[in-house]
User: What shape does this take?
Amino acid sequence: MLTPPQVVENYFLESRHQILEIAAMMDRYDVAVQQHGSHGTAAGPATEQKISLLRKALAIAADPKPTQDRTVALLELFATG
Amino acid sequence: MQIIQPHYHAIARTAQDYERMAMSGVVAVAEPAFWAGFDRLYPETFIDYFRQISEFEPTRAAQYGIRHFCWVAVNPKEAENPVLTREVLKHFPEFFAKPTVLGVGETGLHKSTKNEIESLEAHVDLAMKHGQLVLIHTPHLADKAHGTKTVLEVLAGMNVDPERIWIDHVEEQTIRPCIEAGYWAGFTLYPITKCSPKRAVDMLEKYGTEKILVNSSADWGPSDPFLLQECVLEYRRRGHSLQEAIEVFHNNPCRFLGQNPKFDIKPIRVETIAAPRA
Assistant: This one.
């Protein structure tokens, strides 16, 4: 089992990278909405629902005091989508 | 599709890279001088390194039909030894005369120390006096924004031609001032620590493709030269045409590097062959 500093040192850069990718995807979505509107595709409501799901997921992932494992909560959340 | 890899540290890679790059469309690479992973102590070590990248490496690349060009510099990480830097700089002109040396790089900043800034100024000054192109490294991660700002301040205080200077490793927080000042900007694709293929395409869509050089560096650390091809794929998947991709990944390197006549690969255009008349 790793120590807390080891967890951070081992996974900080990888996590930074993953968060940047998610942020870039959200920016990409906003640009697309500006250009095409949120109903730019036939799957308008479904698209908004998925984005909403991702926003909820980010809040769960960032929760400093979760009541259950974040991964469990996220998988359950995505199962509802 | 023909691709040029404008920033590639070949000596840290195996021939398998060359073989796979050749099979995936790479027609030329340009190798900036790099940090060896430890601080070199002797000018002669640099001289032999420059000989390796300007004399030997082109022969290795040629076995796979790839043209190999290079740059010479003392890496910013080694700029804390000013005596060594000055001694190595004295030898640059003899390498400028070699047929595949394109200019001075990668110089730049790492921690933006006084010695690094003096080294950057000396590199850029020498390059301008000899009519050479310049490739500037900007710092990693938390040091990037401050270091890039400092690079721009240093350049603004010198008599330089921005058209002949490529500021590399820009990211979302540093691209705008570099291109607004008229410099070429480079996106360096790394698996984790720099830009990703998707983010690079985001920036191409946001800022346009003019004066942008996309590269995947590839050195002795965690890196992947084929992130460049991944970026091409991402660009094409978003609906950009083959010609638009060629403009970014082949023709832009031709335009920047071709300012040195030694780089004689020309921009290309895809054309449909008209059907013969019956």
